[in-house]
């Protein structure tokens, strides 16, 4: 898998993890990422399924909690959070890896 493909999959995983924080179902996450990040729902579903395989216990509890959760966010709130999350994610991607200025002031020879 090329670097750009791995980076894309990592970005999708990161966005799915944000959806989990918002207590979104798999279907809601697929719809939100398709609508706001132009990510094919098949990609989101595939990455979600792999996360489920790797984290069975978490998802068993998560799926139970999500189905019974009464204090879920409204669709408008989810839309707003997803937009912010995507803009934050893309701005970090454009910044590249910047070093902490405090680290550059340290002399490695001391």
Describe the structure.
By secondary structure, this protein is an all-alpha fold. 75% of the residues lie in helices and 0% in strands. It is built from six helices and no strands. It has helices at 3-21, 26-37, 41-54, 56-68, 75-95, 101-104. Helix 1 (3-21) runs antiparallel to helix 5, helix 2 crosses helix 3 (41-54) and helix 2 (26-37) packs across helix 5 (75-95). Mean pLDDT is 78; it is low at 97-110.
Record the SSE blueprint.
Layout: H1 3-21, H2 26-37, H3 41-54, H4 56-68, H5 75-95, H6 101-104
Structural class: mainly alpha
| SS field, number of helical segments | 6
Q: Alpha-carbon distance between the termini?
A: 42 Å
- Mean pLDDT reading: 78
Helix share bin: over 70%
Question: What order do the helices and strands follow?
Answer: HHHHHH
| Tally of DSSP β-strands | 0
- Rg estimate, integer Å: 17 Å
Q: Biggest sheet, in brief? A: none
Strand residue content: under 5%
Which residues sit in consecutive blocks of at least 5 with pLDDT less than 50? 97-110
Structural shape = globular
Protein name: Angiotensin-converting enzyme 2
Region (Disordered): 84-110
Pfam family, one: A_thal_3526
Biased composition (Basic and acidic residues): 90-110
């Amino acid at each position: 898998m090329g670097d750009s493909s791995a980076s894309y999959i990592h970005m999708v995983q990161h966005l799915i993890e944000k959806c989990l924080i918002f207590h979104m179902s798999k279907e809601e996450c697929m719809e939100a990422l398709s609508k706001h990040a132009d990510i094919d729902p098949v990609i989101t579903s595939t990455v979600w399924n792999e996360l489920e395989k790797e984290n069975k216990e978490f998802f068993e509890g998560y799926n139970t909690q999500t189905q019974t959760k009464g204090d879920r966010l409204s669709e408008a709130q989810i839309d707003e959070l997803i937009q912010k999350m995507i803009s934050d994610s893309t701005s970090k991607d454009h910044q590249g890896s910047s070093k902490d200025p405090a680290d550059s002031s340290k002399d490695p020879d001391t």
